[in-house]
Amino acid sequence: MNAWYLFCFLSALAVLICFANQYVLHLQTTVAITTGSVLLSLLLILGVSSLGDSWAMTITHILGEINFNQLLLNGMLGFLLYAGALEIDLMALRKQRWEITILVLFSTLASTIIVGYLSYWLLGAMGWQIPLIYCMLFGALISPTDPIAVLAIIKQMKAPEGISVQVEGESLFNDGVGLVIFSTLYSVAFFGTEPTFTSVAELFLKESMGGILFGLVLAGIGHWLVLHCKDVNLRLLVTLTIPTAGFASANLMHVSGALAMVTAGIILGNVTRPAASAKTGVDDTLFIKHFWHATDTVLNALLFLLIGLILVNMPLSGSLLMAGALMVPLVLFSRFISVGAPYLIFKRYRSYDKNSVRILTWGGLRGGLALAMAASVPQNTVVINGVDLHNLIVLITYIVVIFSIIVQGTTISPLIRKSIEHSQTR
């Protein structure tokens, strides 16, 4: 069985899980798929270790050959961010621009530092004497909320607009800041680069601002082409070139493809779509909107199925599992502090839902982006207590991500319902 056949079967499996979920579990789709894939991983592990089943061994081998880092960061990410950004309300985003900016810049950096120092102390107390720079690296990759996971949950829950915009806006933009912090610490950790203000500022401007500017260029070109297309199918193909050729071009230019897709998606969704509707009618734009909604749904299903299946090739041990389990409350505490502190200032100028900080903390999900960054840590370069640093970081990241998607994703509903009820009574 080759990788393409595996993807075909996994896509079908994701659909079957979604179908069964609507009649049996009634969970949010992302949570149901991730839970099902984790259970499948455990069955595959059991099949390989206990029974030596040839099919289980074959699937495990193929899954091990999939480069999750490349698949997500250089492939699926462009489609998922672009499709998500198409649905963002620009006017609502502008109302919360200062809150989102502070959450993106301050909260991501503050969380990185808090996670870094606390994990250094906690893991050291457990006997894992990990240098601080690697703990900071873990803080950088786990601090940004994952836009793919967050958008999937928040959209289906239909959270109040104010909170929804803050969570969605932060998650769409903080990956660019998180990637800059991660790239800087990565260079210091593995290449001996001196972290200076000039080098960090240059990296930030090139990656983040470069990505936003390139996204504006893509949006401008896409806007003109869409409005001058006479055929709806050609118009759809134009929108497809942005997360394909546009995303690839951004990566080759070494600017943030993620921010380019978010920028282009927001403009095409808020400026181009209304203009095209006025020119050619609503039916044509609805056709394209439905296509991207379906694409987003399918890719999300496949991504979260793969996240669960990564467990198959994880190096498991009691001490590693304990380390990962302890990282969960640590990451949540860091998230609460880094989000709660700005709200002490926000509340002086504007009233907010009383559950805002709790929703932003518990709803700040981690997903594929954190795992992709963790997977980029070099293998066989640093060994701690006989364990490869790569395996250690990937496993503790995986535990935080799975807890985030399954536990937090399942239990965020009551908080959102309270906010809905509170907004209706005001």
Features:
426 residues; mainly alpha; Na+/H+ antiporter like fold; two-stranded antiparallel ribbon
Shape: globular
Q: Name the CATH architecture.
A: Up-down Bundle
**What is CATH's topology name?**
Na+/H+ antiporter like fold
Major sheet: arrangement of strands: 1-2
The unreliable regions are none
When the domains are counted, the total is 1
* CATH hierarchy, class: Mainly Alpha
Polypeptide structure, described:
This protein has 426 residues and is mainly α. The protein has one domain: Na+/H+ antiporter like fold (Up-down Bundle), CATH 1.20.1530.20. The protein is built from 18 helices and two strands. It has a two-stranded antiparallel sheet. Helix 6 crosses helix 9. The N and C termini lie far apart (58 Å).
